[in-house]
């Protein structure tokens, strides 16, 4: 990318003048962020247009990643890096007396996702564009993204995330491509204007879907793909009659109701789901996206839909967009007059489904009542899909009525969205080797027996452009100094760093870089939270959504145990440690919220106890999100990946820690297994019960947490401290946590996630961490070995796997000459 400094400067000034009526000296930080971003957007535009026209010129297959979540974070720095003009822009701004770092911090995160699944979608888009694959995202333009978390009196309090308060400089509204999505109404059968007999819906509630496009800039390439997000609005606007009658609320009622569809991102609640508005969101963006694809197809190729699967691969990011399957059936049959069999043969070649969870309760099911009244025609189509499926199933397992019932897409009054996806699609994938094995052998065993060839693994990955180039420039320079460039697009080249694992100078430099990144995090927390951390201490970090299966509780109980030891035994002298947490809990997830309160309560106590003498500190980082994650990973020494074995589908923060040189303290779960495999177990701290051991206890009902409490008095003590007044004089706040471990509450077994069973093994692994950290050079060597072997965990590798096995798309290269 050629960069014209003079033109950029002029552009920036012109922007400020036009948009804000200011010159540079009058502009505030936000004005500057907006004008700089708009000027960058202008640089992106020609390549974006050229990419689109290349795709139009080459009728080749494209990938559409349908996802209810895209956790994009900030775009400015990332776009500059991918364009290859970051240093140049910083230079120009410096010349104008503008500090880039301050500008950068003005950008709100696009927090349109909960966690791993949403961030994975964002990493995939980056890799698709970088590798020159025609692949795009389709999702929802939530007006409010992931809530803003504040900690008040140790409790999480949620505030709305009004990320669109100012305009978003990256989006382009495409009113010309708006479509209508229909809800409710009655199914009718009758003649269309041109005399054909079709199903149609009468008296439906109509919602307008308007697309907003964001450019997805590839790294060191001209390819710029598109993330298209749909916004809901009312076709009728507000009611002027009612307004004139001074019935103001009624006047805007319909407008509000339509806009509510894309109002807010739903949390990944652990509790019962099935809210009608959530289903409305899902159908809203799936219907809009498929209408968009079909319109485009018909405009270019006419109505010979047999070609459709040759030009489209649609990846369903979990079950959230599965309603796209019957929606495409509806469009093909009701709007284009296709017969069932022809339409179905298109479906079977087009859709592929990714599963992201092993928790049975998280598999999406919809009440028939809710589904049918909201989407009557879609329900009818799902019934017909199921009728045909059951014929197939009965032929295969004629006498197995149990199985026929279990696998029926509709049973027990509910629609099983995963079943629909597996039956209709041609591919089902898990997101790590262990996860896929568990899908095949446990969770989706019935389905694997029926369709073994559909099942495949695609171990997750992360983009090194954001999680290394952008977030850790010093480590990036360290790498490039030794192995040259190239790793930005082929992370396996990091293997070349192994030459340096015994080079003291390199190890010293690595230590210095880590130290400097820790200093920067210390500085950030000082300003943001008035927290004073010791950068000499071990930074032991657990950042991820708060969930019982992720076992933040195991981490805190161990901290409470260390604290007890420090107080009782003055000769106990481990290296100083800082335990850092960052986590949001779904607003309705009561037990997760008590764990946040517990972390903060323990932190308050320990951090203010002078007897601890700087050996132990606990920090809860408020409002954990992508832009904060970018400051945390580079500063971490220890990566806490301590989920109950078999429960974390993959994990992706584990990979971000690894490329940034943190050592993994983790269970044999999800992608941790593959991380230990790549880096060598001796360069991390694996611990804990295996999936098999847990499965065995589960089957034989032999787990008795009481035994572990009896055998380990120090553990019994910390568990008792949850209710004995040590941390809470009311004895109430942590009672449910206590009882859930010891007795089981609300009909649950005690300690469902084997916290007590793994405690001792975890404490021993933590002792090894402390011991290992004493030898700085040997620690740095392990860190470098981790970095050198992190190549597998680039989302570029993941995308190549999807392309080869599932999507079968070809690269489309945009040449410099194609850009006008
Ligand atoms: C479902 C129904 C109603 C409301 C919300 C939801 C919902 C929303 C989000 C359910 C789940 C999610 C998010 C799940 C998720 O992030 N899963 C993670 O996906 C990562 C990428 O594959 C994995 O690495 C993680 O292991 C997995 O937990």
From TrEMBL:
Top EC class, one word: transferase
Residues that bear N6-(pyridoxal phosphate)lysine: 656
Keywords: Carbohydrate metabolism, Glycogen metabolism, Glycosyltransferase, Phosphoprotein, Pyridoxal phosphate, Transferase
Any Gene Ontology CC annotation: cytoplasm
Domain of life according to the entry: Bacteria
GO biological process terms, semicolon-separated: glycogen catabolic process
Co-factor requirement: pyridoxal 5'-phosphate
Catalytic activity field: [(1->4)-alpha-D-glucosyl](n) + phosphate = [(1->4)-alpha-D-glucosyl](n-1) + alpha-D-glucose 1-phosphate
Molecular function terms, GO-annotated: glycogen phosphorylase activity; pyridoxal phosphate binding
One Pfam family hit: Phosphorylase
Protein task: Allosteric enzyme that catalyzes the rate-limiting step in glycogen catabolism, the phosphorolytic cleavage of glycogen to produce glucose-1-phosphate, and plays a central role in maintaining cellular and organismal glucose homeostasis.
Protein name per its UniProtKB record: Alpha-1,4 glucan phosphorylase
Organism: Treponema saccharophilum DSM 2985
